[in-house]
Amino acid sequence: MSAPAALIFDVFGTCVDWRASVARxxxxxxxxxxxxxxxxxxxxxxxxxxxxxxxGGRGYVPLDDLHRENLDIVLDRFGASCADPDAxxxxxxxLDPWPDTVAGLTALKAGHIxxxxxxxxxxxxxxxxxxxxxxxxxxxxxxxxxxxxPKAEVYLTSCAALRLTxxxxxxxxxxxxxxxxxxxxxLLTAFVPRPTEHGTSQTTDLAADGDWNLxxxxxxxxxxxxS
Amino acid sequence: MSAPAALIFDVFGTCVDWRASVARxxxxxxxxxxxxxxxxxxxxxxxxxxxxxxxGGRGYVPLDDLHRENLDIVLDRFGASCADPDAxxxxxxxLDPWPDTVAGLTALKAGHIxxxxxxxxxxxxxxxxxxxxxxxxxxxxxxxxxxxxPKAEVYLTSCAALRLTxxxxxxxxxxxxxxxxxxxxxLLTAFVPRPTEHGTSQTTDLAADGDWNLxxxxxxxxxxxxS
Lengths: 227, 227
Hints:
The structure is a homodimer.
Chain A: E1 6-9, E2 16-17, H1 18-29, H2 35-44, H3 46-54, H4 63-78, H5 85-89, E3 96-97, H6 101-109, E4 113-118, H7 122-132, E5 140-141, H8 142-145, H9 152-161, E6 169-173, H10 176-184, E7 188-191, E8 214-215, H11 219-225
Parallel strand pairs in A: 1-4, 1-6, 4-5, 6-7, 7-8
Antiparallel strand pairs in A: 2-3
Helix pairs in contact in A: 1-2, 2-4, 6-11
């Protein structure tokens, strides 16, 4: 493998602990519900909402707006109400990084361009970076492609925006499915497990299921492997 | 004036000294020419090249490619040759910040989203930030609008990407023309003079020529005014 010029990252789950962070804000805003169950249900609406856009059934809508629509769906399902759902929707901008994320990204930034390649919008990724101190060089991903991962267009548009070929760019993710799609688009791949993304009884993505270019224990280890 | 949530910046001339930096690389690559005259001529082709795109006579082409085309034009005009014009074109990614730029941006970043709103591409702005240590939160500007300043679309697309209204965003520039266009689009405005951008005999943009929301001596002063 030749050394990548840029590393692009999945964010929800890979860089930040969305579940515990969203549950914290849900617990504050809607004390009557099981906050983790609510967070899981809210996240559960994520993929179906994007699928309508990926399939062409709906034009590009930023994830901020999909989250807001999905919040109404989940409030209804839980029979719950929320004094200020618009404010609660900003929970997705207040997701805490995993303990190694900032140090690992900072080390990787010294030798590489680093950027999110997330389904989150530019606005969402920007505010999330300010919240957690994520030291991105730029924001790539769904919004510049106006489509959603795992469609190849999102990875390819992100590489093109850096004026790099896919073979010069490494996708870093805690989700094997993201890496399968990135590799099919020609990118290098690195897997970093996040075994508690879905809680302590998580059963998915506990280990690499593909022959990825790199498998690292965490972002600090990834920086060591690439140094 | 209400406090801006985000500050977006002109870059060439406002954040970085493109002229001395490009001249340095020209002097190394083409010792036979007057490096400052060559840099001025190269920059002189910038606006006409963008105007074809702004006027609809040509689709969006990133500034990196316009710079490369313009290099051939200027080499021909100077009767000069260059061993590796593609390498010289990367001079635009190696522009030194003004002495106050990094400290001022760092101070401003603590309380605001900061981003370039430049005619440079995402790739160019990303590499320029790494070269000079510009601590942007994200990269906005021409590429996400697929058009060039001073067209309103570039300012408006940059605000929309942050999910902010134009009135929540302040455009910072050393060029009155940029600020006139930004204000016409509804943005707040701040002027910071860069009286040697074009050399010691500069005659343009030495002072504010509009009733801008703020006029600051440099970026550190701007941070004081906004603190």
